[in-house]
Design brief:
2 copies of one chain form a homodimer.
Chain A: E1 8-12, H1 16-27, E2 31-35, H2 39-47, E3 52-54, E4 66-69, H3 74-82, E5 96-99, H4 105-116, E6 121-124, E7 127-128, H5 130-135, E8 139-145, H6 147-160, E9 161-168, H7 173-202, H8 206-214, H9 221-232, H10 241-257, H11 263-280
Parallel strand pairs in A: 1-2, 1-4, 2-3, 4-5, 5-6, 8-9
Antiparallel strand pairs in A: 6-8, 7-8
Helix pairs in contact in A: 1-6, 3-4, 7-9, 7-10, 7-11, 8-9, 10-11
Chain lengths: 303, 303
C-alpha cells in the first residue's frame, strides 16, 4: 500500500459532505486534490491545504490513486466520469473510484461497467452522517465492491469514515443499503412533521412536545435534529425538501424494481413531493410540516 | 407535605410498568400497596416489601394518600374507579389519583369529572420508557392537572419518574401528548419493519442492515429496540402488536376528533390491524413485519 504522504486522492464535489471529506483527507496526510464548479468551494479547499483545485479534475487525473465522487446524483456521477470531459478516460488503469452519491443499484452497476472499460476499480460506497460527521472524518460508509477496490481505497476510507460497513462484493448492494437507510430517514422526518402538526392542532406547546419526545421511546435521530427547526421556526436549509423528494423517489423506484410494497415510504414520498410542489423545495426538509393546513406554527425566534 | 415514611400509595395494575413503579415507591420509602387480579404479580410485590396486596384495593383505600393507576386502557380505569367495586367511593376526599394508562383526552376528562364528584384530585399523567425505566424509577411522565394534584403526588412522581413534564392544568393535555408520542412510536416500528422487509427482499443481510441504521441518521429508538427482535427471529412479546392496534386507534380517533389528517399514522394503524387480523396480535410488535409477503426472515438463533 502507498505511504499516505505519497497517496493522491481527488474529491469531486465540494458540497458540505465533499468538503468535509476532502479536509479529512488533508488532515490524514493524503495528497488531496479537489474539483467543483463552484469557485468559492475550490478556494476554501485550496486554503485548507489542497495540492491543487480545479473545475475540471482531468488536469491532475494522471497523478491520482483514487477519486472520491461526492456529487448529488447518478446523472452528475455519469457526467463527471463519462460525459463530454470524461474523467474516466484520463485516470490511470487501476485507479479506484469511490462512488458516494446516493444512487440506485442499477445506476451503480452501469457506472461500474463503464469504469471497468477503462480498467478502473469501483467501490459502491454511499455515505451518511451529515456535514458535521463529514468534517470530523467520521462519516458512515456502506460499501460494496471487490477486495482490490477496498484495499486500494483503504487510506481514503481511514481518512473520511468513522465506520465502514462491508456489505458484500456485488456492486449495487451499497446503493441499496443507503436507499433503505433513506427510507427510514425520510419517513422519520415526515412522521415528526405529522406529530408536531397534530400537537399544534391540539394546542400542545411545540417546545414541550419536542422535549417529551426527545426524552422518550418515540424519538428518532431525525426527529431530534429536524423538529428543532420547527420549534425554532427556522427553515434555513441544512438539507432541503427536494433532497428527500429525490431520495424517496429512489426508494420507491427500488421497491418497484423488486415488486415490493412500501406503504409508509410511498406516503412519505407523497408528502415531500407535495411540499416541493407547494413551493418549499429549497427550504429545510422540516418544511414538509407546512403542507398541513389549519395550524399555527412557531415563527422565527428573536436572536 | 407528608414525610415519605408516612405517605401511603397504592399502585393498581402490576404489569411490567406498574410493578416497576411499585418497586420504585418501596425503594423511595413510601408505604406501598399493590392491587392486581393476577396472584403471581401480587405475591411478587408482597415479597418486595409492599405493606399489603389484594385483588381489590378497597380494603386499604381509607389509608391512602394517592393511587397510581397503571392498567391497560380507559375501560379498566373506569371499572376500577367507578365499577361494581368502585374504589373512588372508598378513597378519602383529597386523595390524589394519578391516571397513567394511555387513554384519550375525552376519557381523561370523563374520569376527572367522576373523581371530582367524590372530592378526589386527578393527575392526567401517562408514562413512557418501558419496563426497564419503570424498574429503575426513571419513567418519563407527561402530566396535566391542578397545582394541588401535582403537589399531592410529588412523593410518587419523585419515586417513579426520571422526568416529569408539566404540560398544563387542563386535564386531557397529558393524554394527548402521550397519544402523539405513540403516533411516533408506532410509525417508527412499522417503518422499521418496512425497511427491514425491503432489505430482506433485496438480499441485504438483516444484521448488517441493522448495524448500519443503528449507527446512522436513519435510527430511531424503536428501530434499535424492536428490529433486534427481527434480526434474532425472536417475537416473544415485550410489547404486543395488539398494544399498537389500540394506541394507533387512539391516535386516529384523536385526529378525527380534531378534524386533522394523519397520512402516516393511519397507514401504520392499517399495518398493525392487518398484523393482528393475520394472527400475530399477541406476538411482539415487531411481528408487524410478518405481513410483508415474499420474503424470508431470520429464524430463532441457536442459544
Amino acid at each position: 500500500m502507498a505511504r499516505s504522504n505519497s497517496y493522491h486522492v481527488c474529491v469531486v464535489g465540494l458540497g458540505s459532505m465533499g468538503m468535509g471529506a476532502a479536509r479529512s483527507c488533508i488532515a490524514a496526510g493524503l495528497q488531496t486534490f479537489g474539483s467543483d464548479l463552484n469557485p468559492v468551494a475550490r478556494e476554501a479547499l485550496a486554503g485548507a491545504g489542497a495540492v491543487a483545485v480545479d473545475a475540471d479534475a482531468r488536469g491532475f487525473a494522471d497523478r491520482l490513486d483514487a477519486v472520491l465522487l461526492l456529487v448529488v446524483n447518478a446523472a452528475q456521477c455519469k457526467a463527471v466520469l463519462f460525459g463530454e470531459d470524461a474523467l474516466a478516460a484520463r485516470l490511470r488503469p487501476g485507479t479506484a473510484v469511490m462512488v458516494s452519491a446516493t444512487i440506485s443499484a442499477a445506476d451503480a452497476k452501469e457506472i461500474a461497467v463503464g469504469l471497468a472499460e477503462h480498467g478502473l476499480l469501483m467501490l459502491d460506497a454511499p455515505v451518511s452522517g451529515g456535514a458535521a460527521k463529514a468534517a470530523a472524518g467520521e462519516m458512515t460508509v456502506m460499501a460494496a465492491g471487490s477486495r482490490e477496490a477496498f484495499d486500494k481505497l483503504r487510506p481514503v476510507l481511514d481518512a473520511v469514515a468513522g465506520k465502514v460497513y462491508e456489505i458484500g462484493e456485488e456492486i449495487g448492494l451499497g446503493a441499496t443499503v443507503k436507499i433503505i437507510h433513506q427510507l427510514l430517514a425520510g419517513v422519520h422526518i415526515a412522521a415528526g412533521a405529522e406529530a408536531m402538526a397534530l400537537a399544534a392542532r391540539a394546542g400542545i406547546p411545540l417546545d414541550t412536545m419536542y422535549e417529551v419526545v426527545t426524552n422518550a421511546a418515540g424519538n428518532s435521530w431525525m426527529f431530534e435534529n429536524r423538529m428543532k427547526h420547527v420549534v425554532d421556526g427556522d427553515y434555513t436549509p441544512k438539507s432541503a425538501v427536494d433532497i428527500f423528494v429525490k431520495d424517496l423517489r429512489l426508494v420507491t423506484e427500488t421497491a418497484l424494481s423488486l415488486g415490493f410494497p412500501l406503504p409508509l415510504a410511498s406516503t412519505a414520498y407523497t408528502m415531500f413531493a407535495n411540499a416541493s410542489n407547494a413551493g418549499y423545495g429549497k427550504e429545510d426538509d422540516a418544511a414538509v410540516i407546512k403542507t398541513f393546513a389549519g395550524i399555527q406554527l412557531p415563527g422565527v425566534k428573536e436572536k
